[in-house]
Amino acid sequence: MKRFWKSGDPFIWLTGGALAISLLMVAGLVLLVLLNGLGFFWPSPIVLLTLSDGTELLGQVTQREAIPQPDAPPGTSTRYRIQVNVGNRDLYGADFVWVEEAAIARRDVPAEAVLIERREWGNLYGFIKEVRDNERAVASGPEAAWSALQALLPDATSTFKEIRRIEKKEIGAINSTQEKIRLELKKLQLSGQEGGSEIARLDKEMEGWAAKYREQEPRLATVRQHSRQALIVSVIGNKETELPLQQIVRIIRPNSMGVWSKSGVYLSRLWEFISGDPRESNTEGGVFPAIFGTVMMVMIMSLLVAPLGVLAAFYLREYAKQGVLVSTVRIAVNNLAGVPSIVFGVFGLGFFIYLVGGSIDRLFYPEALPTPTFGTGGILWASLTLALLTVPVVIVATEEGLAAIPPGMREASLALGATKFETTWRVVLPTVMPSVLTGLILAMARAAGEVAPLMITGVVKLAPSLPIDGAWPFLHLERKFMHLGFHIYDVGFQSPNVDAARPMVYTTVLLLLLVVLVLNLATILIRNRLRKKYASSAF
User: Fold this and answer.
1) How would you classify the pairing of strands 123-133 and 229-235?
2) Distance between terminal CA atoms of the chain?
3) Residue 236 and residue 137: Cα distance in Å, rounded?
4) Residue 237 to residue 24: CA distance in whole angstroms
5) Residue-wise burial string across 35-53, b where 16 or more C-beta atoms lie within 10 A, e elsewhere
6) CA–CA gap between residue 301 and residue 294 (Å, rounded)
7) Domains in the chain, please, with CATH?
8) Closest Cα partner for 482 from 505, 446, 454?
9) Which residues are CB-contacts of 456 (< 8 A; sequence separation ≥ 6)?
10) What are all long-range contacts of 506-509, with beta carbons under 8 Å and residues at least 24 apart?
11) Left (φ > 0), alpha (ψ -120 to 50) or beta: where does 140 sit?
């Protein structure tokens, strides 16, 4: 037995077992996220429940669980309850109810039941009664109204998109230009100019844009009046509700759909989640702004942290005289990696936003004060904060790569007449690049999942505009942005509708994992190519 322990085999089995357990835990977590996330988009049946007291409920069953019975005597049978998404929040007040299975007298699956995904107030469950156009009945009855609805809904959706386009792009561009002219006028006034040709020119230009704005108002009103179709829906409780077609995102009858039809709805919902904007307090719609903000922040952070970390590592390893001071700096760098991320957030708030951003506003944007331009949270300050947070990782990885380079490579370069800089630039740096990319991979993975420092340096629940758009200067680093990590926190812990938000948490977590995986895989592929290219090194 003593020989067995001295052989080291138990420790091999111990480490292998720990690795297997870790992999199983990670696989179980990913599987849980996959099941709860991807299943959210599948259209489940609509059930009509008749309770023993005569109450009727129409909706989709979302989950089933055992009812806790802490004081029940031993041998008591387990009771179960189901959660039903009845929707119709504007009519009932709450769109999720719990029902004990023992209280259900009858279950039906009516083929005519419809699920209407609305732009406001969540889902609507009921039965189609009539389609109207300007208060005139176009079709009545479930089948006739359904057929008429399929013909009218695409036009209503196009009209809604046209309204949004006019509001955001054309009228939004006019408002943006007017705001710039107003700031230019205020800047001239601050410099002491009360009149003159420049102010007269700006006033005239402002009047021209005001005239363009007045031209857009009747156009917008005309587009809104173009489509006045409405859908009359009969809901449980002998109630009827009128819904404008422009407010309908999607309408389906899952009880009469086959597998292929449901698959089409599934893919449509999945694409909407990836490419659409959020709605209903981020519990519905898509997360494209959060995807864009996450990827852009990680890319900006990578562009900032890579040169900073590499230069610091090269100085410590290649140029600095080794001694107590350099050893102290290395210890400080290693300890910096263990500082809580919220501390970096507070530093970013005080230094980058208040000091640097406030100084920029006072020097270059005094006309906009007291409204800050750079003296408030933005994607640039958030990226700089995360660059400081992750720079120790890049420094340590780069230093380890530099230490692994055989001294003969440097000596051979110097012996051939190359200078210290030429040796560093043409020999050492290309050889150490795989280690640099290893540190960058770890930095990107951590930065993509950080939330605490972002909450006080620029991330918001809903950003009105992306950091990149078609307006000059196209890249707006001062703008606030959305982030998948903060989106998970906001939806999971700050949402007013927890039951509706739960599936969005799983889907967003899955999407964040995919984003990190794609970014890391791209960097890993580049690193592997560099390793093959410089196979002669110790790597």
Assistant:
1) antiparallel
2) 39
3) 22
4) 49
5) ebbeebbebbebbbbeeee
6) 11
7) 288-533 (1.10.3720.10)
8) 454
9) 345, 346, 348, 349, 377
10) 506/33, 506/36, 506/37, 506/40, 507/37, 507/38, 507/40, 507/41, 507/273, 508/287, 508/290, 508/484, 509/33, 509/37
11) beta
Predicted model pTM: 0.88
Q: What is the pLDDT along the chain (539 residues), one digit of tens a residue?
A: 677 666 667 778 888 889 899 989 988 888 888 888 888 889 999 999 999 888 889 999 988 888 887 777 877 788 899 999 988 888 887 788 999 988 999 999 999 999 999 988 889 999 999 988 887 888 888 888 898 888 888 888 888 888 888 888 888 888 888 888 898 888 888 877 777 788 888 888 889 988 988 888 888 888 877 778 889 999 988 888 889 988 999 999 999 999 999 999 999 999 999 998 888 778 888 899 999 999 999 999 999 999 999 999 999 888 888 888 888 888 888 888 888 999 999 999 999 999 999 999 999 998 888 889 899 999 999 999 999 999 999 999 998 888 888 888 888 888 888 888 888 888 888 888 888 888 888 888 888 888 999 999 999 988 878 898 877 778 889 999 999 999 998 888 877 777 778 888 889 998 998 888 888 888 888 888 877 776 544 43
Q: Measure CA 350 to chain center.
A: 26
CB 105 within 8 A of CB 51: yes
Q: What is d(CA 184, CA 197) in angstroms, rounded to the nearest whole number?
A: 13
To which H or E segment does residue 498 belong? helix 498-533
* Number of Cβ atoms within 10 Å of the Cβ of 142: 19
Strands of the sheet containing 96-100, edge to edge, are: 96-100, 80-85, 56-66, 47-51, 104-108
Q: State yes or no: cis peptide before 370, omega within 30 of 0.
A: yes
Give per-residue burial for 439-478: e unless 16+ CB within 10 Å, then b: bbbbbbbbbbbbbbbbbbbbbbeebeebbeeeeeeeebbb
Count the alpha carbons within 13 Å of 56 in the hemisphere toward its beta carbon. 13
Residue 529 CA to chain centroid, in angstroms?
A: 31
